[in-house]
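Inverse folding, one chain.
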């Protein structure tokens, strides 16, 4: 377990803003990683994954008790509350690291998603997960929606590590114009792994991680994962968070603020989800 010093924290902030992601090593204690591996293995051993989820590997939504009670839901095999969800979203070192980086108004969805690639599981298609492309929020030079992820095993290309195209949270890539919406029926139905959604791109980089490292990524970042060429399951836990309070910039923001954000007067909160990139990304 390491603490970031202020220079390192500033580097991480700049990486997140400029590249759309950053990795902070050794945030989750090893003992918790081990407990979560046993816990998630047990869940994954008892749940049937629909064929349409084969590229993501699984889609199990674990709620904090506070959200579950409030939302009054019905337990389903991939939808249930568990005290581990709170342990993850409230992890003290995670809070400290995020605060040092300057992630103001950080608000978790209070759901942890278990995403697991089985042994010899297929790759994950290129996608970005932002859902407000019809709002000027899509044009913020700072993140407003981020995912915090922990892989529960070390990941490298051979067992299906994450891949990203740095900068694509802000800059249009040809993938923006050819990909079906993330996790839509259309992308899930692709059967041909030679489709551009699975191709290699010269500007793509691997993001190998150690178990317990914290990945912080902008929802707009183009990302994918390699296939798992090992027999061992590769699991990650992902929690969505809102950050900064749109249209307000971070308190530390010194660069220009786009006119479209300065002039936004309408509330975009109620807009329906819109996953297709618009002209807010150029
Ligand atoms: O499998 C991974 O490494 C990333 C998963 C992901 O990005 C997603 O399911 O949206
Ligand atoms: Fe994703």
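Residues assigned per position:
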């Amino acid at each position: 377990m390491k603490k970031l010093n202020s220079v390192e924290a500033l580097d991480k902030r700049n990486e997140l803003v400029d590249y759309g992601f950053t990795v902070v090593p050794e945030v989750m204690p090893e003992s918790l990683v081990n407990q979560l591996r046993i816990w998630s293995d047990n869940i994954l051993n008892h749940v049937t994954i629909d064929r349409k989820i084969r590229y993501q590997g699984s889609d199990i939504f674990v709620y904090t008790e506070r959200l579950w009670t409030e939302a009054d839901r019905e337990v389903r095999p991939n939808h249930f509350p568990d005290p581990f969800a709170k342990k993850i979203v409230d992890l003290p070192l995670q809070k400290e690291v995020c605060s040092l980086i300057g992630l103001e108004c950080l608000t978790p969805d209070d759901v942890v998603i278990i995403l697991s690639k089985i042994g010899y599981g297929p790759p994950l298609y290129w996608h970005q997960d932002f859902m407000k492309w019809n709002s000027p929020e899509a044009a913020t030079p700072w993140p407003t929606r981020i995912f915090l992820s922990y892989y529960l095993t070390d990941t490298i290309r051979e067992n299906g590590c994450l891949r990203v195209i740095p900068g694509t949270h802000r800059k249009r890539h040809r993938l923006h114009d050819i990909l079906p919406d993330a996790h839509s029926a259309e992308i899930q139905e692709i059967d041909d792994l030679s489709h551009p959604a699975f191709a290699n791109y010269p500007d793509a980089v691997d993001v190998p991680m150690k178990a317990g490292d914290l990945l912080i990524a902008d929802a707009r970042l183009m990302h994918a994962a390699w296939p798992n060429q090992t027999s061992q399951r590769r699991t990650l836990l992902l929690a969505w968070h809102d950050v900064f309070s749109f249209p307000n910039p971070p308190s530390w923001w010194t660069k220009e603020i786009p006119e479209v954000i300065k002039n936004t007067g309408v509330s975009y909160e109620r807009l329906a989800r819109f996953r297709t990139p618009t002209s807010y990304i150029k």
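Residues 127, 129, 223 surround fe (ii) ion (ligand 2) (CB under 6 Å). The chain has a mean pLDDT of 96.
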